[in-house]
Amino acid sequence: MNISIIKLLQSGFGTSSVIAQCSPILASQLHTSAPLCRVVSGKYRITKKRDKPLTYEMANPPHYIAHRKSWNSWNTSNLKDGLRRSETAVEDEFIRRFMTGTWHGLVCSEVIIKRQFNHIRVAAIIRRAVSPTKMYFLLGYTEELLSNWLQCPVTLELQTVDSFKDVVFKYI
Amino acid sequence: MSLFMRNYKPNSLATVYNVKLWRLNSTTADSVMKKDDNEEEEFRVLDILKKKDRMQRRVVRRADIQPDRADRMALDQKWGNVWPGPKTFHPSSVPLPLRQGYVSKGQAPPGKKANAELMKIPNFLHLTPPVIKSQCEALKQFCTEWPSLLNSEEAIEKHYPVEIITSDYCHASPSIRNPLARVVTLRFKLSTLKLDKHSRDKFIRLVGERYDKETDLVTITADRCPVRVQNLDYVNYLLTACYHEAWNVEEWEKEKTEEDMEYYEWNNNASKKSLVNWFMRTKNEFKELSEDEYRSFDVSVIPNAEGYKDAVSSLMNDGESDETVRKYGDSVRKLLGLPEKKVV
After folding, report:
1. Within-domain flag for B147
2. pTM (two decimals)
């Protein structure tokens, strides 16, 4: 009795596998799980001790751009029908990397790049961790090199703070 | 006392003596002595993590940081000298208690110092009303007076009938070129051109949809050449060519028949012919007229013929409607001397 049931089951499984092999439509995988619609980029997770410092920029996720915070790049290329879109984006990324590398560990905020005609204004908040002499050197160095590479006048407009704690907006 | 103690510390006997001696005088001294005793008895603690040293390291604060410029500003200073040109916001030179940022209810938004949001937004601190005023004053010497005769739109339109429309583009990138700047539009009123009936008709046919019937404006746009000057020349060429072509009368244009007419011309049509024939018959004149004679026949001699002509033309040109049909009926009654239609 039992054996016959097992045999029946086996035959049943056998037929189903045969059907699956013969018809690819039946065998095609149907996903029934809900899609994972979770946006993670530009958001920070809350720590257990609630001691992770966030600046205002970090505290507002990307969908708050133009609502609670504004853009870091100001130019006409990112408008509709703007010219030199890719070039501007690449140049901005290059300026950001160069700034964070040159002012190593000193940049406390995002690097803000504003363009007016061919003039590039780079603004950032810098920690007063090095002597003013060094800071002046770095300022001239950055301006000179960037304007040489980008072939436009570059102006650094910095604001200094005592420590990173000054730009902290909240702890999560 | 301290001298005394230092001298006699190693000697326990002496210490005991000391205690006895000072207990009478002060309690504070007594406690000091006790503490000394304890220290001597305690083992030294092995501080592996060097916690003590680490705690003692002090944050070095810079003493050479200047106070804010905004705090030392005179009340009657010229703001234009403080902020002469476009610049990113700097909190220490703007004497305004600014705040920017979104916070939940009940909290104050972040202040002006170390506020990146204030640095992001473009400011117009260099364009305060007094500064604009002074700049306008400075520019005045380079301006010329507006011609006094061109005091109204009509005068400008009369003396400068042709309008050239171009666009200049201004953008934040190293290049000043924009391909859209090459487009040139020429616009003028057709009534300002010297055209007769035939040439006007031909001109409208030549320019096609560039002529707007409602506003009587002809708009010619050129963007096929790479440079604006070339497009401008091309637009002017197009206008000249169209104008002279409109005045040309080709041989085949005379072959235009009534079927080719784009509108109903009463003078060329059978309606006029029958009216003239009817008029002759009422006068008892029986003459054979040629086509040209029919065409050039002056209908003003026939009473009420002008109204009839207008009514027929509007009926044919504007289409059949209650208004045109009624007008036609009235004019026919007038022409034939019939009584007015009675309103029932």
Report:
1. no
2. 0.66
